[in-house]
Amino acid sequence: MPTNTPVKNMNRSVTDELLNQGRQYSRLMRLDRPIGMWLLLWPTLWALWIAGEGRPTPHVFFVFVLGVIIMRSAGCVINDFVDRNIDGKVERTRDRPLATGQVTSVEAVVLFVTLSLIAVALVLTLNRLTQMLAVVGAGLTIIYPFMKRFVAAPQLVLGAAFGWGVPMAFAAETGEVPRLAWLIWVAAVVWAVVYDTMYAMADREDDLKIGVKSTAILFGTADVFIVMMLQIVMLLALLLIGAAAKLGIWYTGGVVIAAMFMFYQFMLIRERDRSRCFQAFLNNRFVGATVFIGIVLDYTFHPIA
């Protein structure tokens, strides 16, 4: 009797190939490493809850959460595309799909364009001011990977990009961007400089070899002290935000817990051990989470009249 085993084997081979390629695209978008997604999401959620006075519009909430996932993924793709010739020289990044050739440059560009078009479709459902701000956010996302070659403190550009969801959230919720929104944005920028300096401290030796700039290199032996000072600035900004938004004890409690996490991070980075610096970077997701929980609890139990 005739057998279709060769056909089945061929179909299985094609399926396995498609699944493997899908996994490589997922790795390129860092879906397997969601830390960046959390760091991008938390300031956006702070802004959404404060702008919406504890009750953000469901549609706006959905668009921003999905938008964070899409734009962070797009940012990772364009970052790896720009760094495709140097990632192989860095211990932590040498196995990235573009560096190993598991994804081609053309595939990366197509993926970036596809993700960008999805983001455009999402933002078109929001008001005109939010759309205009989204153009600036897209520009920051695109230029950041290049800044590492020319600017001594590229973390400032990263912070501007990662915090740009804040003015967008206020624009989407209220139709304007008040001073409170910019204060939250400044706190988000300072926070990004803090955690990305920790990240860069883990890569400092490799970055020096390949000529990539970072605040870890810029700060030199004062890095731990400056990071600690920036953490204090962020905490003060968070307290000012609480006062401006008339948030109470629940929010303050969240900030206090965030301060405890920051002290733990200081203990991790003070010896400048590479793995512990990276651990401190990862720990920042809890800082953002505790501030957000404080905001939610404050609006839940002490809603503003």
CATH classification class: Mainly Alpha
- Helical content class: over 70%
Number of strands: 0
Number of helices: 13
CATH topology: Tetracycline Repressor, domain 2
CATH-assigned homologous superfamily: UbiA prenyltransferase
- Helix/sheet category: mainly alpha
Radius of gyration: 21 Å
Distance between the first and last residues' Cα: 80 Å
Q: In terms of per-residue confidence, which ranges show pLDDT below 50 for 5 or more consecutive residues?
A: none
Element-by-element helix/strand order = HHHHHHHHHHHHH
Number of domains: 1
Q: Architecture, CATH level 2?
A: Orthogonal Bundle
Summarize the main sheet.
none
The overall average pLDDT, rounded, is 91
Task: State which percent range the strand residues make up.
Answer: under 5%
Inertia-based shape: globular
If you had to describe this structure to a student in words, what would you say it looks like?
The protein is mainly alpha-helical. It has a single domain (29-301), classed as Tetracycline Repressor, domain 2 (Orthogonal Bundle), CATH 1.10.357.140. The chain has helices at residues 5-28, 35-51, 58-82, 97-100, 105-123, 128-150, 154-162, 165-174, 179-210, 215-219, 223-244, 249-269, 274-301. The longest helix is centred in the middle third of the chain and has 32 residues, at 179-210.
